[in-house]
Design brief:
The complex is a heterodimer of chains A (619) and B (360). Chain A is mainly α and 619 residues long. Chain A has one domain (45-570): Cytochrome C Oxidase, Chain A (Up-down Bundle). Chain A has helices at residues 9-14, 19-24, 32-37, 43-48, 53-84, 91-97, 108-144, 152-171, 202-231, 244-275, 299-333, 340-354, 369-397, 406-428, 431-437, 441-471, 477-503, 523-553; strands at residues 286-287, 290-291. Classes of the chains: A mainly alpha (619), B alpha+beta (360).
Chain lengths: 619, 360
């Protein structure tokens, strides 16, 4: 169809409703197309109900990261205060917890609610929606060379469902009997019976509604990402010329589509047990003086269903961060990412294996011990592609010319904490060893290092690196340096000692350790952890300030400040609907021609055709 | 008041950082350094950050060494069960492997970050891939992991595959509820009678674990609270039940844990190898008890000053605690475990009342 003029441009405009069809055949469009095609913008359609992927990315960033992230961190500081100075009276408790802190002393029930909502917000709202929602939206169309997502409308719906879900989750904090308090893992029967835990009443109901809407939002987003990557790549953008960010976002979306519906099913069955008298997860229960009617169900079934999502979920959190890191390390090393195909293979291997390891969360759940062996085997397998990735990042740095922009610092930090956290995963993945550290602080230390730090670093790295693309301005690099180093030091200060607390036998989700004199000698360690946590919290304020200040007053960015090869940097700084004025660029090479011998510059954008005497890079 | 002061301090800290940044820029200007406000890393930035990267490697090593040095003493003492020995061995071998991997990879990462810190006009080495290298670092980790897997799976199998027909074993039910533990012994026949929560309201609520009185096996069952005793060197088969929500029977000194699931009977078995008296003499335990009593002494001083009673000195005991979130008092769901000599155990159990006395 190349070179052929549109015979009936008018008809195409009338077929606005099939924007997907329009985008498919959008090979030689000029920007006139977009003048006809789009109605006039109002404040509402530009900033609120936008269908533009770049605006939606910003909406996810501000809602998921700045807002929900801030709340998630604040919740953690509250319960860390309680853990370091148990049953002490604090003014902040009085201010923020109200009736849940009589005379300033935290109530045990709200402690459990705080850890529950902290976990829920951080895993789902910050690290899933905030990470994937922001960067998949921003980068997929721009890096593959598309005008926008396949469906701008569904994209918009996806964000507003997320917003609604966030609002409902936050509203559950103010319920009279308290928010959900059965852990972010919400195992029944505790989560099913208000008689067993007051937060399992309305608080839990709102949690379930919020998550059901969240799942819908996530699925809509994932479907959009998958369809867009498959169908809307520009001319020359074959799969093996895609940047690793796209591979990561694409595979993440596929994992999401496979696993989130199972969480929804678990939630629906739980709703039925709670409200409609069924016994999927409940049997033989006596609480508050009476035998309940439930017969025949099993909480272990819930655990299977939950973790069938729960484990892929952590890779849904991590893979985008790894993709972002690949991109940022390559750009800032002025070197190709080492082993591109191996990196793609490891993303695929991790994705596949992530669906068959869920039982490692259930080694001592009472399930058949044979399954324990099976899941130990698959879990240690997944360590192999993870190791490959770590080595490839390290080799990318070797003989590079490293540019230490804040994004690069966080990317290297990600590799460091990913290695540390991943290695302790090898201990936990061994069913035998899990016996004595299951549900202790060892687990908490492990997953915080890989998710709470590693994936979070990926998020930060992405924000610093793509801030110019998001807002047309640069973030302050010195504040970025301060943010990184204080966070990096505090992160290890919080979580290294925590491993020892876990190995000392201290279970997690304990309101206080003072009920056991045996744990008295852990009190000092808990104080150290809390002090570092407070320091880490303070460091995030530096980031918040830098972000907000730079959004309005940051140095105006040029088109390609990091001298990167990928397509998003060929689009103008000012956001345009349709991303490029005129034709979408064509792609002639892979995404990592940095410091290619025989070239004048130390980078060659993907849009530059292969030179006369140039060798095509084998990758 | 504290809230206000904290807010003010944070605000002042923020202003301080902002001003320090401004001062730094002014100094740079005065030194004649071109004010580079591009917010893109310069050669000087690369040099500084590269050096900080190396310093961070030192920090990682220092933190690791410090934690091992300062916190090793809070770790659990040697295992008090038979399978605990291979457990600990597997743990330390695994740790040795991961500590080696950690030391090695962090060094490479941070050293390269330092060594290859960017300078102007140097071109990086265009190195796209090397399949042999990929093979090396796929196969070597795979081999190491396979060794760990096989070792782990064998140990797991030995622990979990226990025979129930062992004549010599003692069967004990651990009964979990919000928020305490009870233990039930099978009595003379060493067979636990059927039980279900349906029977809890029998006998005016004195049927505390819901024994089914129609099953004769249960008539000689013995239920105890507060503490339960087990004889040393005898295999114990634990059957776990829960009355209401998920709990977890965690006995860390024996390297034992198993969830208690309402509607299901779960099981775990171990053979205790050290009596409570013996463990109390273990040097690590002695040191830990010392530390704890020092802390209790300090805390007692504070209590006495407030006119309250001082704390009793602490003596080591094995513990059963709950390790699965179960509601308000999850943090205080404990039972003492006493490992007796066989003689003392027999004396203890014979002094306990059987279920039949409740049935009167």
């Amino acid at each position: 169809m190349e070179g052929k003029k549109d015979k009936n441009p008018r008809i195409r405009v009338k077929m606005e409703s099939t924007e997907f069809g329009d985008l498919l055949s959008d090979k030689n469009k000029s920007d006139d197309f977009y003048q006809d095609h789009h109605h006039k913008e109002t404040f509402i359609t530009k900033y609120i109900f936008s269908q533009d992927h770049k605006m939606i990315a910003k909406q996810y960033l501000i809602t998921g990261v700045l807002f929900m992230g801030f709340i998630g961190i604040a919740l953690s500081l509250l319960f860390r205060l309680q853990l370091a100075w148990p049953e002490e009276s604090f003014a902040v408790f009085d201010i923020f917890l109200g009736k849940w802190a009589p005379e300033g002393v935290m109530d045990p029930n709200i402690y459990l609610a705080l850890v529950t909502i902290h976990g829920t917000i951080m895993v789902f709202f910050v690290l899933t929606a905030g990470l994937s929602g922001t960067f998949s939206n921003l980068l997929i169309p721009l890096q593959i060379g598309a005008r926008d997502m396949a469906s701008g409308f569904l994209n918009m719906v996806s964000f507003w469902l997320f917003f609604l879900s966030s609002a409902i989750m936050l509203s559950s904090l103010f319920v009279e009997a308290g928010p959900a308090a059965a852990g972010w893992t919400i195992y029944p029967p505790l989560s099913a019976l208000p008689q067993a835990q007051s937060g399992s009443g309305m608080g839990m109901t709102l949690w379930l509604i919020s998550m059901a809407i969240f799942v819908a939002s996530s699925l809509l987003g994932s479907l959009n990402y998958i369809v867009t990557v498959i169908n809307l790549r520009t001319k020359g953008m074959s799969f093996f010329r895609l940047p690793l960010t796209i591979w990561a976002f694409f595979v993440t979306a596929i994992i999401g589509v496979i696993s989130f519906p199972v969480l929804l099913s678990a939630a629906l069955l739980l709703i039925m047990d709670r409200s409609f008298g069924t016994s999927f997860f409940l049997s033989d229960i006596f609480v508050q003086g009476e035998v309940l009617h439930y017969q025949g169900g099993s909480p272990v079934l819930f655990e299977h269903l939950f973790w069938f999502l729960g484990h892929p979920e952590v890779y849904i959190v991590l893979l985008p961060a790894l993709g972002i890191t690949s991109e940022i390390i390559a750009t800032n090393s002025r070197k190709p990412i080492f082993g591109y195909r191996a990196m793609v293979a490891s993303i695929l291997a991790i994705a596949f294996l992530s669906t068959v390891v869920w039982g490692h969360h259930m080694f001592i759940s009472g399930m058949n011990p044979f399954l324990g062996s099976v899941f130990t085997f698959t879990t240690l397998l997944i360590a192999i592609p993870s190791a490959v990735k770590a080595f490839n990042y390290i080799t990318t740095l070797w003989k590079g010319n490293l540019q230490f922009n804040p994004g690069m610092l966080f990317s290297i930090g990600l590799v460091s904490t990913f290695i540390t956290g991943g290695l302790t995963g090898i201990i936990l993945g061994d069913s035998t060893l899990d016996i004595n550290i299951h549900d202790t602080y060892f687990v908490v230390a492990h997953f915080h290092l890989v998710m709470g730090i590693s994936a979070l670093y990926g998020l930060f790295a992405g924000v610093y690196h793509w801030f110019p693309k998001l807002f047309g301005r640069m973030m302050d690099k010195n504040l970025g340096y301060i943010h990184f180093w204080v966070t990096a030091i505090s992160a290890y200060g919080v979580f290294f000692p925590m491993h020892f607390v876990g190995m000392a036998g201290l279970p997690r989700r304990y309101y206080t350790n003072t009920a056991f004199p045996y744990f008295d000698d852990l009190a000092d360690i808990n104080v150290v952890i809390t002090l570092f946590a407070l320091l880490a919290g303070a460091a995030q304020l530096v980031f918040l300030y830098n972000f907000i200040y730079s959004m309005f007053f940051g140095k105006k960015a040029e088109k390609n400040p990091w001298r990167s090869t990928t397509l998003e940097w060929t689009a103008p700084v000012e956001h345009l609907h349709g991303n490029w004025p005129g034709e979408i660029p064509h792609v002639y090479r892979w995404a990592y021609d940095y410091s290619k011998p025989g070239q004048d510059e130390d980078f060659v954008p993907q849009t530059i055709p292969i030179g006369k005497d140039e060798e095509i890079t084998e990758h | 008041m504290i809230g206000l002061l904290t807010g003010v301090v944070l605000l002042l800290m923020g202003i301080a950082i902002w001003q320090i940044n401004n001062i730094y820029q002014i100094i740079q200007n005065n030194l004649g350094n071109k004010r580079d406000d591009s917010q893109i890393a310069t050669e000087k930035d690369n040099d500084m950050q590269g050096k900080l990267m190396f310093a961070f490697l030192v920090f990682i090593y220092v933190v690791t060494i410090y934690c091992f040095w300062a916190y090793s003493k809070v770790l659990l003492p040697e295992a008090a069960s038979e399978h605990g020995v291979p457990y600990d061995r597997l743990l330390w071998i695994s740790f040795a492997i991961i500590l080696f991997a950690q030391t090695f990879t962090q060094a490479l990462l941070h050293y390269f970050a330092f060594k290859y810190r960017g300078i102007n006009n140097r071109k990086a080495f265009f190195f796209t891939h090397d399949n042999n290298l990929e093979l090396v670092w796929t196969v070597i980790p795979a081999i190491v992991f396979f060794i760990l897997i096989i070792y782990g799976m064998i140990t797991w199998s030995n622990i979990m595959n226990f025979s129930e027909d062992d004549e010599d074993a003692i069967v004990i039910e651990l009964y979990a509820q919000q928020w305490n533990w009870k233990a039930r012994y099978g009595g003379q026949d060493n067979v636990l009678g059927d039980a279900n929560v349906r029977f809890l309201n029998d006998y005016d609520g004195r049927n505390s674990v819901g024994i089914d009185s129609s099953d004769p096996n249960g008539w000689d069952d013995i239920v105890v609270t507060q503490e339960f005793h087990i004889p040393v060197n005898k295999k114990i088969i634990f059957k776990m039940r829960s009355q209401d929500v998920l709990h977890s029977a965690y006995m860390p000194h024996f390297r034992a844990q198993m969830n208690c699931v309402p509607g299901m009977i779960t099981e775990f078995s171990f053979t205790p190898t050290k009596t409570t008296a013996e463990m109390r003499m273990n040097p690590d335990v002695v040191a830990k008890v010392d530390r704890i009593n020092k802390i209790r002494y300090d805390n007692s001083q504070k209590l006495i000053a407030k006119g309250e009673e001082s704390l009793d000195p602490y003596q080591f005991d094995y513990l059963l605690l709950c390790a699965k979130i179960c509601g308000t008092s999850h943090y205080n769901m404990q039972m003492k475990i006493v490992v007796d000599t066989e003689k003392d155990y027999n004396k203890w159990i014979s002094s306990k009342e059987a279920f039949s006395s409740i049935m009167q």
